[in-house]
Amino acid sequence: MNIYRNPFVLALWAPLYQLVATIAITNEFLMAAMFIMFTLGLLGAYVTDFPLLPTLYMNEVAHKTAVSSLMGMFLGFILFLAFGAGGNEGSDGGVISAGNQFMLTWGILSLPAYPLMTFLIFGVNKRDLEAEDIIRKEKKKNRAGPPITKKNGF
Predict the structure, then answer these.
(1) Closest C-alpha among 42, 31, 36, 45 to residue 65
(2) Are 14 and 72 in contact (CB under 8 A)?
(3) Confidence at residue 98, expressed as pLDDT on a 0 to 100 scale
(4) Average pLDDT value over all residues in the chain
(5) Is the dihedral of CA 22, 24, 25, 28 positive or negative?
(6) For residues 110 and 18, is the Cβ–Cβ distance under 8 A?
(7) What is the model's pLDDT at position 15?
(8) Helices 56-79/13-27 angle, 10° precision
């Protein structure tokens, strides 16, 4: 098996991407919002067939990383709210230091993201991306533009 297509190795992009998310989340809310918008931009680029990276496989991996990152953030925040939101509302932070908070946040975000990324990469490796790309380009070439409405239809 090619190490560059091994799902367990490629899935390590999800915790690495979540490390950037953790830096954004623990620093400031605006940085977290910008990170989420950047991730949504990656998804938008994939949907509109805008090539971010040189190969189709790398674009697929970037898309799967963005999807697993968003799902990891969503499930991670649910885990955090379910188990981590204690009753110390008025305290000054409790017993968790800044370094432990960083590692805890990264762990909570990466815990659901890595298995999801592994599952999604398994699906990508089963597909024939070159054949799909040829079909996609043929369909795009056959589309002439928007349909013209009938002038005397009203």
Answers:
(1) 42
(2) yes
(3) 61
(4) 82
(5) positive
(6) yes
(7) 93
(8) 50
In the numeric block, which tokens belong to residue 106? 């990264």
What secondary structure letter does DSSP report for 94? T
What's the pLDDT score for residue 30? 92
Every domain of the chain and the residues it spans? 3-83+98-141
Nearest to 112 by CA among 18, 4, 1: 18
pLDDT at 150 over 70: no
In angstroms, how far is CA 90 from the centroid of its own chain? 34
User: What's the predicted TM-score (pTM) here?
Assistant: 0.75
In the numeric block, the tokens 């999604």 are attached to: 120
Give me the residue label for tokens 């971010």. Answer: 52
Confidence of residue 139 (pLDDT cuts 50, 70, 90): confident
